[in-house]
Design goal:
about 35% helix; alpha+beta; elongated; 3 strands; three-stranded mixed β-sheet
Length: about 60
């Protein structure tokens, strides 16, 4: 899907509810697959108030 550009307002109002969707995994392979599927939902590129750009994790 590639990187996405988000405004500072969109990044500021991100919900932490996605982080609560963590469950116990019986194997490392299951956890890796889950993390790979969630990667695009948790990482975004946007404008930082300090540096002018940034990579943000939700």
């Amino acid at each position: 899907m590639g990187p996405r550009r988000h405004s500072l307002e969109a990044i500021d109002c991100l919900s932490s509810q996605l982080a609560k969707d963590v469950k116990a995994f019986s194997t490392l392979k299951e956890r890796l697959i889950h993390l790979q599927m969630m990667e695009n939902q948790r990482v975004c590129f946007g404008k930082s108030g300090i540096h002018g750009w940034g990579l943000f994790a939700r």
